[in-house]
Design brief:
Length: about 500
Amino acid sequence: MGKTLTEKLIAAHLVSGSMEPGAEVALRIDQTLTQDATGTMAYLEFESMGIDRVKTKRSVAYIDHNTLQSGFENADDHRYIQSVAAKHGIWFSRPGNGICHQVHLERFGVPGQTLIGSDSHTPTGGGIGMLAFGAGGMDVAVAMGGGAYYIPMPKVIKVELTGALRPFVTAKDISLEVLRLLSVKGGVGHVMEWGGPGIAGLSVPERATITNMGTELRATTSIFPSDEVTRAFLKAQGREADFTPLSADPDAAYDRIIHIDLDTLEPLIACPHMPDKVVPVRSLKGVKVDQVCVGSCTNSSLYDLLKTAAMLKGRTVAPSVSMSVSPGSRQVLTMLANCGALSDILASGARLLECACGPCIGMGFSPNSGGVSLRTFNRNFEGRSGTADAKVYLVSPETAVAAALTGEITDPRDLGLDALYVDLPERFLIKPPSDGLTGLTDEDNLGFSYHAVNEYIRRGVCPDEAVREKIDRMHRASRFKFQTLPVYHNGLPMVIEDGTDYYK
């Protein structure tokens, strides 16, 4: 009997354990990623291991979550993460480069490799045939140190796609349809493996939308084959050498097969406050909308935003609607600007937000009291938007724009617009890191070697007084990160065990 793609990749990375459903398997991890909301603790845990360099093929630290707060705390975290990245051979993505999952697809994802990340939507990497898992910070730290990642051997559900998407029906609608069928618990203990003739018509950004949303099924991960669509995407990103064809065997056995006919699919919408409360958009026709957000790691690709711009071109957002657009990466934003699509977005009255997670994690752009917000995001949990009584709906970019233009929930097919066809470029804009950091070393910037740091910190040996003073100064500035967190009593901080008051 043949093997599923999931079984093939697990077998290729198996360190120990039995590939029987439910039995524990230990996997060799090729890549890791972190984001700044979870990365600080992950890197503190990694440094505590005393390992000089990461053991993975590639590890990347992204700054994409906590980017716009008042105060020094997050900026200090970012500096700490940047210094750790340079010291230990981790690639560093500075604030503004974009959302981790979007940028990782562009620059680092490799078909057939394993990836764990300290973010639940790391399975986005499955859109190019990676075996990608969301994991805890300690798991990521262990993987960076060369340790295995332990999971129960998953069962595999195949989602068989036939037909082709009709105009204004999208990959987001495919994801919502699966959530409607299975619920937010339907993927527990399973990998969602996508196949069938219908996948040939889905671009990598569309596939990544689907694997991203697989997290809302509580699936172990989601994965697409690596095929000619994957090759074209990697070639356009200047990374064709990373391409490997990957697929399940024709006679592979699955625990369950779900069939979806794309020819019959229609625009769908997830109602408050769960991603699986899915109904046809037309069933909510006329519901007034206060806010529209396009972006997040789910729908912020160049593909998504070119379609958004095309629908907005020459039109104006309804006066009653506040609309935001968040590009997924600096690459996406720059290419939108270069081709004129960004001007079409801005001319419509939409607001441009930075290339970051932003409203998806409740970081700004909260709806008004009791407001109705349509978002192209992956989650609509109660209060997640930052407004406790807001009503948040999950939709495709096309449905979001339709609501922005009309001021009410509207099926985009009812606007009377010509069908949208977006071809991805043969060559994406690729630019080296503007700060010159490649994750290899910052010894030149420091003015001394890592060996000198280790000798002074661990043994107290440092013959150069100037170097010693600089290390001491840097250590004092970051020392608070290593202290026990203060305990609060009746709203007031208590003095911690060593007697130090860090509020002085």
